[in-house]
Write a structure and sequence with these properties.
With 523 residues, the protein is α+β, with helices and mostly antiparallel strands. It is built from 15 helices and 14 strands. The protein has helices spanning 7-71, 76-101, 107-135, 139-203, 205-232, 251-257, 261-264, 269-272, 285-293, 341-355, 365-377, 396-403, 405-422, 446-461, 490-506; strands at 236-240, 246-249, 274-277, 298-299, 304-307, 313-324, 330-339, 386-394, 428-433, 436-442, 465-467, 470-472, 475-483, 512-514. Strands 1, 2, 3, 4, 5, 6 and 7 form a 7-stranded antiparallel β-sheet that branches. A 5-stranded mixed β-sheet has the order 9-10-8-13-14, with helices on both faces. It has a two-stranded antiparallel sheet with strand order 11-12.
């Protein structure tokens, strides 16, 4: 009789083990997935409620502190800035409140919310009173309202907020207890399934060995791929240990730091890399390493710069994150840097070009009108006299037609420097287009403004422009407008200055016209 092959029971047993393993895996995975989904939804909802309640409470506390701070500020600009911050926090509170109310609330939570809402209304009525007094510069009265009326209402409201936060914390604890109970149940199920899977593991030991070898090979290949990726990315990658000694540099980091990895490995980070704040030249290395080794991810400030080993400075941006062991301990950190010197320089150039005339380097018309409009609309505009000069060059077109556009451009550049030398550092000169210029004189008495206008006109008239052996002279017609506090718009000022300049030009010999009338000294 033929004996059955030994492979038959082996195959049968292996098949049974595979079926059992599949069943254990399917049951465990399904149960854990369902349980995880339920717990995740509960915990996420509770956490979101607690976070929103805490945020709203913090916003109200911050708004009270902001209002108190504003009531002590005698500088109206600083007080306005603080009140703008106070208003922005109101929008942040509304956003958090709307998000909180979209979440499902039980009866206890909704009851607390109604009490808080009533207290908020009471607080806001006192806030409006204090704001009105602040806008009238009645700081003492505003402080009195804050201390006697707002503070008790604020304390009552904050107590209600504390109740809501405490309630959410309690419910979070309940959710945590439920999660612990569910975790215990999952552990029991896992132990039960593991007991069955234990017997399966005996039969697939050889398979596990083979699989481990394959995984080791895959891990090696993955490490090689990761190494190639780090070598290829365009950012500098620097890894260091807990002693702040360099353990890895990719090629971009080598180029940026000016040191090869073979020489940099093992050296202290501060010896190879110097990060500093370009505004005050304070170092950033120590703070960056300290935060990273404390387990915090940190980002470089916008003013961060890097000094390479060759002494070159780069503007950089980047972040530093801690590296953890499988046990959760910190084993070092990885710093990623990006050289943004050219990008930021281009950005600065674009910003400059947007506000300046490319030929003369003066402010252009758009930026000039924006600056003057903001000056006129400021709250302190009525405290200082303001004058506007509109300058139109006479006999400029013949220079352009005779000597060419290159000569005309050079003449405009030289006359720009002449006019800049005749005004104060606090005044603003802009090219409005073609051969037209404008000057705004801030905090300048009317008589001085007119003297400056005559000085500019006389300086332009006396200027000799030499081009290819020939001498050219131009003149200037200037319209002067003394801006009264009753004028409401920039367009009215510009129109009046343009009209005065036109009248000066019609005189045929260049003049300075004030408010559209020729002054005695120019008549």
């Amino acid at each position: 009789m033929k004996r059955p092959s030994a492979l038959v029971p082996v195959i049968a047993g292996f098949s049974v083990m595979l079926i059992l393993m599949a069943a254990v895996t399917a049951i465990g995975v399904n149960y854990v997935r369902v349980l995880s989904g339920q717990l995740t939804a509960i915990v996420a909802e509770r956490n979101e409620k607690a976070e929103l309640a805490t945020v709203m409470r913090a916003i109200h506390e911050a708004r009270y502190q902001s209002l108190m701070l504003a009531s002590t500020m005698h500088d109206p600009f600083m007080r306005d800035e603080e009140l703008m911050r106070f208003s922005r926090m109101a929008h942040e509170f509304i956003a958090a409140r709307d998000k909180f109310l979209t979440l499902p609330l039980d009866e206890q939570e909704f009851s607390l919310w109604r009490h808080i809402r009533d207290n908020v209304k009471h607080v806001e009525s006192n806030v409006e009173t204090a704001l009105a007094l602040l806008q009238l510069d009645q700081l003492d009265d505003a402080q009195l309202v804050i201390k006697r009326r707002l503070l008790p209402a604020q304390e009552t409201m904050m107590a209600e907020w504390q109740k809501l936060v405490a309630l959410q914390r309690g419910k979070n604890q309940e959710a945590l207890n439920d999660a612990r109970y569910a975790s215990t149940q999952a552990q029991r199920l896992t132990l039960t399934l593991s007991a069955g899977a234990f017997f399966v593991g005996l039969g697939i030991a050889i398979f596990v060995v083979r699989l481990s070898r394959r995984l080791e090979k895959d891990l090696f290949e993955e490490k090689e791929r990761a190494q190639v990726t780090l070598q290829a990315i365009g950012d500098a990658v620097i890894r260091f240990d807990t002693d702040s000694r360099i353990r890895y540099l990719n090629p971009v980091a080598e180029q940026l730091l000016g040191i090869q990895q073979s020489r940099g490995l093992g050296q202290a980070l501060e010896q190879v890399m110097k990060l500093f704040n370009k505004e005050d030249r304070t170092g950033l290395n120590a703070e960056l390493v300290t935060q990273t080794l404390a387990g915090e991810r940190s980002f470089l400030p916008p003013t961060a710069c890097l000094e390479s080993g060759q002494g070159m400075e780069y503007e950089v941006e980047g972040s530093c994150a801690p590296i953890h062991t499988p046990e959760g301990d910190i084993m070092g950190g990885v710093l990623v840097l990006r050289d943004v010197t050219e990008a930021r320089e281009l950005h600065r150039k674009l910003l400059w070009q947007a506000d300046h005339d490319g030929l003369t380097g003066l402010m252009n018309r758009r930026a000039f009108e924006d600056k003057v409009s903001r000056t006129m609309n400021s709250k302190r505009s009525n405290e200082f006299p303001l004058s506007l000069l509109f300058i139109d060059l006479d006999k400029f077109k013949p220079v352009n037609d005779t000597a060419g556009h290159a000569a005309g451009d050079e003449l405009l550049r030289q006359l720009s420097r002449v006019m800049l030398a005749r005004i104060r550092d606090t005044d603003l000169l802009a090219r409005m287009g073609g051969d037209e210029f404008a000057v705004v004189l801030t905090a300048c008495p009317n008589e001085m403004a007119e003297r400056i206008a005559h000085l500019i006109k006389d300086s332009i008239g006396a200027f000799n422009f030499v081009w290819e052996g020939r001498t050219y002279q131009v003149g200037a017609s200037i319209g002067v407008v003394h801006v009264p506090p009753t004028w409401a718009t920039l367009d009215e000022c510009l129109a009046a200055a343009d009209a005065a300049c036109y009248q000066a030009k019609q005189s045929g010999r260049g003049a300075v016209i004030v408010h559209g009338k020729l002054p005695q000294e120019a008549a």
